[in-house]
Amino acid sequence: MRASSVQIGRCIVGGTLSAMILLLCAGCKPPGKPTAADIEPRPEEVYDFATLYKQNCAGCHGQEGKGNPALPLANPVYWSVASDDTVRRVTATGVRGSLMPAFAKSAGGTLTDQQIEILVRGMRTRWATSRDVLGRSLPPYRADEPGDPKRGAGTYAVFCAQCHGPEGKGTKKGSSVVDDSFLALVSDQALRTTVIAGRPDLGHPDWRGYLPNRPMSAQEVTDVVAWLVGHRKANPGQPYPNDDLTQLKN
Questions:
Q1: Which of 17-26, 72-81, 86-95, 104-113 is the least confident region?
Q2: 129 has which bridge partners?
Q3: Helical spans, DSSP H, in 100-249
Q4: For residues 111 and 46, what is the distance between their CA atoms, to the nearest angstrom?
Q5: How do residues 120-142 score in pLDDT, each as one tens digit?
Q6: Other CB atoms closer than 10 Å to residue 188's CB: what's the count?
Q7: Where are the domains of the chain?
Q8: Distance between CA 105 and CA 56 in Å, rounded?
């Protein structure tokens, strides 16, 4: 039985419309298929400084590097005394005896070497912008020689006691710097860095601001840090002496 001319016409029109629809949708994505922008990158594929800093640093060092429990990184004095190699090493391997963890994958962290480099370069670009330390004799990041706690006691009395008290136990102006918990959670280098670079977020001056027109010398910084370290207990928070504990166990 032959198809009528009407049926043939309908088939031709229908086929033409189907072909046109297919051509129009050739560039369309299927419903529900995610685009590249919809797919979240894997952690090791994040190369944006702001994202890396927020995810890894802001919790301790504060938004925009303004400080929180840890040292504010948006401090030009810090970037004047700490080299890129120093910041890179600290970020990668952490700081033993402190709350600063290792972030490099090679040290058990989650960041690649490239991501750490992005963080270091990004922080220096943003925060090492002040020129007010040019021409100043900065104490070195690391001590050139061991400090003397006895000399440090005298240095502390001159530069620090007015805020932290004669014994370092704190006043209304400044907190205790000999507290067991504080010294247990901060490294020797962190103490030195704070003495040199200060804590702008807490109103703590840098090495130039303890006394008017009287910056601390490198040796005075080293000695006062030795005095502070001398107050650190081997087992902070232990409720009774070792001898008593031994007797109880026996």
A1: 17-26
A2: none
A3: 113-127, 149-159, 161-164, 180-185, 188-197, 218-229, 242-249
A4: 9
A5: 999 999 999 766 676 678 999 99
A6: 19
A7: 39-127, 149-229
A8: 13
Alpha-carbon distance of 17 to 137, in angstroms, equals 82
Name 52's Cβ contacts closer than 8 Å, sequence gap at least 6.
46, 111, 115, 118, 119, 122
Residues in the chain, how many?
A: 250
CATH 3.30.870.10 corresponds to the domain 149-229? no
Fold: same for 39-127 and 149-229: yes
CATH architecture entry for 39-127: Orthogonal Bundle (1.10)
Q: Residue 3 gets which letter from DSSP?
A: P
Instruction: Report the distance separating Cα 204 and Cα 120, nearest Å.
Output: 24
Query: How far apart are the C-alpha atoms of 33 and 140, rounded to whole Å?
Result: 57
Instruction: Output phi, psi for 39, to 5 deg.
Output: -90, 120
**Contact at 8 Å (CB) between 224 and 195?**
yes
* Residue that has been written with the tokens 């419309």 in this structure: 17
